[in-house]
Amino acid sequence: MRMTIIVPKLAALSLVVLFGIALAIPTYAGTQLWDFEEDHDDWKVANGEWEIKGGTYHVDRGGQAEHSLIGEEKWDNYTIEAKVRLDAGNWAGIVFRAESEMEYYVYYLNVPSNIIELWRHKEGGWAARDNIAQNPAVEKVKIANEEWIDMKVVVEGDTFEVHLNASVAFAGEQTWSFEGEADDWTPANGDWSVEDGTYKLAKGGRAEHSLIGDVGWEDYTVEAKVRLDEGNWAGVVFRAQSEMEYYVYYLNVPNNKTELWRHKTGAWDARDKIGELAGSNITVANGEWFDMRVVLEGNVMKLWINGEEQGELADETGAGYPAGQAGVWAWETAASFDDVKVVGDEVIGGGTPVEPQDKLATTWGHIKQRF
Ligand SMILES: *[C@@H]1O[C@H](CO)[C@@H](O)[C@H](O)[C@H]1NC(C)=O
Ligand SMILES: *[C@@H]1O[C@H](CO)[C@@H](O)[C@H](O)[C@H]1NC(C)=O
Ligand SMILES: *[C@@H]1O[C@H](CO)[C@@H](O)[C@H](O)[C@H]1NC(C)=O
Ligand SMILES: *[C@@H]1O[C@H](CO)[C@@H](O)[C@H](O)[C@H]1NC(C)=O
């Protein structure tokens, strides 16, 4: 599950220009706005040469992690929003939850890679820090120099909701490669373990599965490598509302086909069949890795195996699940799973994505359609 992230040194946090920073602080019931049209005695420079210039707050190209702070250490849940322009150089953004000059989170734009990044800085030097998440820029936003970009973070408890420019679709991704523990997964049924860099299920009973993610996830793509080690049926779960309410798309070895079912409450094996598809350009077999992919769009599910489109099935019963977690699954089968990936283009109103506590592997930026 641990993902190696190679990060360039924050060589020069250059020419940050911010204006219109709004802080909405529930605890203090208010909004504060800095438009930098006049003095800013309330800002405290931690590092760098900062000045007000032409109605913006400006820092010249300088060293690593140059920043200026506002507000109080005790602010806990709030929203911070700013317009940011990188005049020269590659990395700039907004700071939040700053406990001291060296202890804070920063959400910033990375021009050369066209990504957004989230880091936690710590004592030891301006560049002492740990990576929390990296995310591709949303499709419609090109992170570039000399361009104003709206940045916003909604901070609540240990969850940060990260936004980039208003009215742009979301693009987020999470991958689990099971190199470490799978402690963010929740087994619903069955005997699960991480072995040899894969997530394994021992041969057991019916509809054994383990879940990941948020019950609020709506349309997304879930992918996984699936191997049936002993037994006939295994696959991927999506739109899981609870341990017993979910869809599963699975491989059926003896019949050389794939099947889609909707599970429901009552028992592990309580379920309705949505449809089945004869394997298209694939032979379903034991002991081989299959790449399974499900693309969800409303009640329509597009199904792929090993890059071959198997077909499309829809749940037209009206009893379907519009949102839910992802997962992996098998039925009276020993199976191995790897490289589970969830990509959401438009997860609206869902929960949230970036949990800062030691979730180095978790990469999920949540960009809402509206500010
Ligand atoms: C992002 O938002 C800013 C400010 O609203 C706008 O000027 C800019 O064109 C937007 N950039 C992109 C790439 O959408
Ligand atoms: C901040 O948000 C967290 C999570 O929702 C909550 O547990 C905590 O009580 C909030 N703090 C305040 C001061 O409201
Ligand atoms: C099977 O694969 C062949 C070769 O890639 C392709 O031409 C054909 O259209 C595929 N068949 C189906 C049903 O997808
Ligand atoms: C499984 O189905 C595919 C596609 O219909 C077919 O090409 C293949 O020969 C079948 N395999 C077996 C073992 O029947």
Characterise this structure.
The protein is mainly beta and 371 residues long. The protein has 2 domains: 16-167, Sandwich (Jelly Rolls); 176-346, Jelly Rolls (Sandwich), CATH 2.60.120. 0% of the residues lie in helices and 50% in strands. The chain is built from no helices and 28 strands. It has strands spanning 16-25, 30-34, 44-47, 50-53, 56-59, 67-69, 78-86, 91-96, 104-110, 115-121, 129-136, 149-156, 159-164, 172-176, 186-189, 192-195, 198-201, 208-212, 219-230, 233-240, 246-252, 257-263, 271-278, 289-297, 300-305, 308-314, 325-331, 334-346. A hairpin with a 4-residue loop joins strand 21 and strand 22 (257-263). The two termini are 32 Å apart. 39% of the residues are buried. Residues 1-29, 167-171 and 346-371 have low confidence and may be disordered. It binds 2-acetamido-2-deoxy-beta-D-glucopyranose (NAG) (4 copies). One 2-acetamido-2-deoxy-beta-D-glucopyranose is lined by residues 280-281, 308.
Write a short abstract of this structure:
Keywords: Signal. This protein is mainly beta.
- Report the end-to-end length measured between terminal Cα atoms: 32 Å
Mean pLDDT: 81
SSE pattern: EEEEEEEEEEEEEEEEEEEEEEEEEEEE
CATH level-four homologous superfamily name of the largest domain: Exo-inulinase, domain 1
Keywords: Signal
GO molecular function, one term: hydrolase activity
Protein name: 3-keto-alpha-glucoside-1,2-lyase/3-keto-2-hydroxy-glucal hydratase domain-containing protein
Organism: Geodia barretti (Barrett's horny sponge)
